[in-house]
Amino acid sequence: xxxxxxxxxxxxxxxxxxxxxxxxxxxxxxxxxxxxxxxxxxxxxxxxxxxxxxxxxxxxxxxxxxxxxxxxxxxxxxxxxxxxxxxxxxxxxxxxxxxxxxxxxxxxxxxxxxxxxxxxxxxxxxxxxxxxxxxxxxxxxxxxxxxxxxxxxxxxxxxxxxxxxxxxxxxxxxxxxxxxxxxxxxxxxxxxxxxxxxxxxxxxxxxxxxxxxxxxxxxxxxxxxxxxxxxxxxxxxxxxxxxxxxxxxxxxxxxxxxxxxxxxxxxxxxxxxxxxxxxxxxxxxxxxxxxxxxxxxxx
Amino acid sequence: xxxxxxxxxxxxxxxxxxxxxxxxxxxxxxxxxxxxxxxxxxxxxxxxxxxxxxxxxxxxxxxxxxxxxxxxxxxxxxxxxxxxxxxxxxxxxxxxxxxxxxxxxxxxxxxxxxxxxxxxxxxxxxxxxxxxxxxxxxxxxxxxxxxxxxxxxxxxxxxxxxxxxxxxxxxxxxxxxxxxxxxxxxxxxxxxxxxxxxxxxxxxxxxxxxxxxxxxxxxxxxxxxxxxxxxxxxxxxxxxxxxxxxxxxxxxxxxxxxxxxxxxxxxxxxxxxxxxxxxxxxxxxxxxxxxxxxxxxxxxxxxxx
Lengths: 299, 305
Prior knowledge:
The complex is a heterodimer.
Chain A: H1 2-5, E1 7-18, E2 21-32, E3 36-40, H2 47-54, E4 62-68, H3 75-83, E5 88-91, E6 94-98, H4 104-111, E7 113-115, H5 128-134, H6 137-143, H7 148-152, H8 155-174, H9 190-203, E8 208-212, H10 220-237, E9 240-244, H11 248-254, E10 257-262, E11 265-270, H12 272-277, H13 279-286, H14 292-297
Parallel strand pairs in A: 3-9, 3-10, 7-8, 8-9
Antiparallel strand pairs in A: 1-2, 1-4, 4-6, 5-6, 10-11
Helix pairs in contact in A: 5-9, 8-9
Chain B: H1 2-32, H2 39-60, H3 66-93, H4 102-123, E1 128-129, E2 137-141, E3 148-151, H5 152-174, H6 176-186, H7 188-193, H8 198-224, E4 226-227, H9 233-246, H10 251-271, H11 277-291
Antiparallel strand pairs in B: 1-4, 2-3
Helix pairs in contact in B: 1-5, 1-8, 1-9, 1-10, 2-3, 2-4, 2-8, 2-9, 3-8, 5-6, 5-8, 6-8, 9-10, 9-11, 10-11
């Protein structure tokens, strides 16, 4: 129950409306530190909208996204930051960020939230290795003295660059793509591209990794590999994972905590056993007798 | 034969200048998908900046070595022109990002007219001359119908262009900044999610384009010895043609296109008609757009889903 005792991300009354459409309304949940939290629900439930709010692509209509990067945030502290105009504060327990107030690149850079998309968004013109190096842009940029020292090829930059290559190599080994490091990323087969995206997100050294349907289109063997990779990310690297996934074998296997959405509203929240038997969830997925609208949602 | 060789030398010199300007067009287009029509005028402004600094150095401060003077002029002009273009981007283009597609284009045309009129107002409408310099020539051949000559300034132009392009290529291919630019070019949103400051990267792209345009402006001034407020337009459009010919978005393409436009223009002027040399250059634009819209080295546009 780490999502209650040590929440990393606390979503409070999040709403996202597009004109008259309420994609997400009044959603509250928490994601525990070093948990794999799954966000599931039928198509159109608003899962990706939640991701877009967390990673700064949408400004939520209302609500708060409090991110306690290092340790447990006192409720009073969070309330104090909320009242002020600030987006970040350093407390005794560590840094607290209000993600809804930050632009996207700072969510990635400062709060250290990384994400992947439903569709593959590798830089297909760059090599596999370059994709992982570009994810370490900020460290390299600083080490290169905003390019000037880097242009001269001074030693501090050289060292940092070598480290970046080492990190990239580590992840390539991890996902078994080391032999293809110098090939254009767009030439890889689909399953490899998906793993490369996760590796690229991990190269930004995230505290929270948001994965939008990472198992979509994978064959059973690849899904099993993915499951292993995600567990390793949680256990070996201490990175928390927020996961949108339709493949229930993956979700039920690895999730510490599951949040179920339907029509932009939370309908269930708990450990996998609890959610599996929750009548609300069964109704949302399978429909209830005499209710045609929910039956259509099943897909 | 002598004539051809001489035209080849002249064409490559002119083409180097076009190539330098074309890089500014192609990079900005690559990164934000906008044709910066004010770029030609930024080039013109840089030539004026170079002129003013050169005169100040030689006449007020009494710098006697022309090589030292030109070197300082080059650096100062790059710096100040970059500042100009950075400001232009902040004022005229950034607020319109995310607006409809034509908005920044219209804004760019407005900025182009503004720059032209501003320079006309403060510097006057007449040609501004520079004292002739680097007039020494090397005789490549002699004894034929006429001597084929290679002027020092032509060597300087081609050498400066080549050195800058090499440095620039290194910057884009091998530094974190260049990688960030390429990432933003391919997928702006994903780049932001990897922590890249997209707005800053775009600003730097404008600064880099302006720095190269400033080099072109200074070299143009050295080559022709005069500059006027309207001198941005024609070279600007020709450089744009060069960028399209080379494949817009491709940096090597811009240089190749620049050299080709330079050669087409000088050879046409020498062998066909001097009066119609601009027609020849712009016909290339039309022909390329009709038959080869992705240019020589460009990649065909792929619809992103």
